[in-house]
C-alpha cells in the first residue's frame, strides 16, 4: 500500500468526527488536502472552517467552504491536521509545510485534535524528521547558534517565507527524548516564534492509514 493511499484512508476516516453545525479547524499539507476535499461534500451542513495556512484557505475557498476568522469564533470542537512524525504518545513533529505557528494556534484553540497520517509517520523517538523552527528574520544567526548548543544542526529552509513573513530553520540531528522540555527550551530563545514540536499540546487521536485499515491510537 502506498503512502498516498494511507493518507487518503486517514483523511476520509476523520470525516466520521465532523459534526454538523460546527466550525472545523483545518490544518495544512497533502493529507489535510484530502480531508478538505472530503469536507466539501458536507459544506452546507457545517458553520465554516478556521484555516491554518494560506494554502489551505485557497483550497477551502476553491470548494466554496467558508473560512472564518479565529477571533470571531470561540473554542473549536475539532481540529484536523497531519504530522511529519508521531510517537505512540501522540507527541508530534509538524511544520514540514512551514505552517507550524498557525497550526499550533488552531490546535491550542481546539477541544479535540485529530491527527491524520499514513503509518510511516509513526516513530519510536522524534527527531528523524528535521525539526522546523519559525524565526524572526533578524534573529536567524543568533537562534541558529542557540540551536547548536541544544545539540542540533540548523539549516535555513532556502527560498521559503512563512505566511507570517518569517524564516524556517530545520534542525537536523536531534534525538528528542524529552519533547516537552525541548519544546519549551526552543520557544524560550528570543527570536523564535514557535517550533514544530507538539508535545505540550499533543494530538488526542491519531488516525493512521495502513494496509490493515485505519488504526486509531489514543495516547498511552
Ligand atoms: O505540519 C504540516 C504542515 O506544516 C503537515 O501536517 C505535515 O508536514 C504533514 O504533511 P503531509 O500531510 O503532506 O505529509
Automatic annotation (TrEMBL):
Enzyme Commission number, as recorded: 5.3.1.6
Pfam families documented for this protein: Rib_5-P_isom_A
GO cellular component: cytosol
InterPro entries linked: NagB/RpiA_transferase-like, Ribose5P_isomerase_typA_subgr, Ribose5P_isomerase_type_A
Principal EC category: isomerase
HAMAP family xref list: Rib_5P_isom_A
Subunit structure: Homodimer.
Designated name of the protein: Ribose-5-phosphate isomerase A
Amino acid at each position: 500500500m502506498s503512502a498516498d493511499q494511507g493518507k487518503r484512508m486517514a483523511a476520509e476516516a476523520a470525516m466520521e468526527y465532523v459534526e454538523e453545525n460546527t466550525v472545523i479547524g483545518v490544518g495544512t499539507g497533502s493529507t489535510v488536502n484530502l480531508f478538505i476535499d472530503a469536507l466539501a461534500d458536507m459544506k452546507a451542513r457545517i458553520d465554516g472552517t478556521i484555516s491554518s495556512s494560506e494554502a489551505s484557505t485557497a483550497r477551502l475557498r476553491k470548494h466554496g467552504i467558508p473560512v472564518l476568522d479565529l477571533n470571531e469564533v470561540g473554542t473549536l470542537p475539532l481540529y484536523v491536521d497531519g504530522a511529519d512524525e508521531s510517537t505512540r504518545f501522540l507527541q508530534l513533529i509538524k511544520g514540514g509545510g512551514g505552517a507550524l505557528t498557525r497550526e499550533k494556534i488552531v490546535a491550542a484553540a481546539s477541544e479535540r485534535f485529530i491527527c491524520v497520517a499514513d503509518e510511516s509517520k509513526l516513530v519510536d523517538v522524534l527527531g528523524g524528521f528535521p525539526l522546523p523552527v519559525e524565526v524572526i528574520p533578524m534573529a536567524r544567526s543568533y537562534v541558529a547558534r542557540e540551536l547548536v548548543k541544544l545539540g542540533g544542526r540548523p539549516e535555513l529552509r532556502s527560498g521559503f517565507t512563512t505566511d507570517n513573513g518569517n524564516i524556517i530553520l530545520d534542525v537536523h540531528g536531534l534525538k528528542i527524548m524529552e519533547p516537552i522540555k525541548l519544546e519549551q527550551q526552543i520557544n524560550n530563545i528570543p527570536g523564535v516564534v514557535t517550533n514544530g514540536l507538539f508535545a505540550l499540546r499533543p494530538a488526542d487521536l491519531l488516525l493512521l492509514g495502513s494496509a490493515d485499515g485505519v488504526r486509531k491510537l489514543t495516547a498511552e
